Amino acid sequence: MAQTNNNWLEAFRTLGLSAFLAIGVRTFVAEARYIPSESMLPTLEVNDRLMIEKLSYRFKTPQRGDVIVFMPPDEARLCTGETQKQAYIKRAIGLPGDVVEVKNSQVYINNKLLKEDYIQESPYYQYGPVTVPPNSYLVLGDNRNNSCDGHYWGFVPHENLIGRATVRYWPFNRFGTLD
């Protein structure tokens, strides 16, 4: 009889530890996300599944070109009409202190043309010049003309960052890193 109780206790411990580790990993290390819109075409397609790495931005800041996941500021609801806050995924373009301008269908950072071989098409709009505030980022979708992004609603504070998209794991034929 003691062996049966011991087996139940061991099973309970194993399940408890597994749940604790799963919650801990998802909260602090990595989590899976999917792409719900066309705002990041051609880099990311609707229903792509990604692994989001959450540790690096605790120790360093995003780099220009990183594909980041974040909670949008309240102003983002102006162009989406969303009633619930959902995480967004966009590309970090403007870093703290940068002067960003979109003119003549191209993005300029500190008066230098930004080479962008990842966008769907050149932007049809004009924007800025604006200076990115401290501890904030300007994010834009790769599908510039069809993205509710920072050119509509402004900047993302560092504390809103969730993590960096690192790997697409679905569909299998597009498996790979997002460098």
Automatic annotation (TrEMBL):
Annotated Peptidase S26 domain residues: 9-170
Membrane topology note: Single-pass type II membrane protein
EC id: 3.4.21.89
Transmembrane segments: none
Name of the gene: lepB
Matching CDD domains: S26_SPase_I
Signal peptide bounds: none
GO CC annotation: plasma membrane
Top enzyme category: hydrolase
Hydrolase among keywords: yes
Subcellular localization: Cell membrane; Membrane
One of the Pfam families matching this protein, by short name: Peptidase_S26
Reaction catalysed by this enzyme: Cleavage of hydrophobic, N-terminal signal or leader sequences from secreted and periplasmic proteins
Tree of life domain: Bacteria
Family matches, as InterPro entries: LexA/Signal_pep-like_sf, Pept_S26A_signal_pept_1, Pept_S26A_signal_pept_1_CS, Pept_S26A_signal_pept_1_Lys-AS, Pept_S26A_signal_pept_1_Ser-AS, Peptidase_S26
UniProt protein name: Signal peptidase I
Family: Belongs to the peptidase S26 family.
Catalytic residue list: 39, 90
Keywords linked to the UniProt accession: Hydrolase, Protease
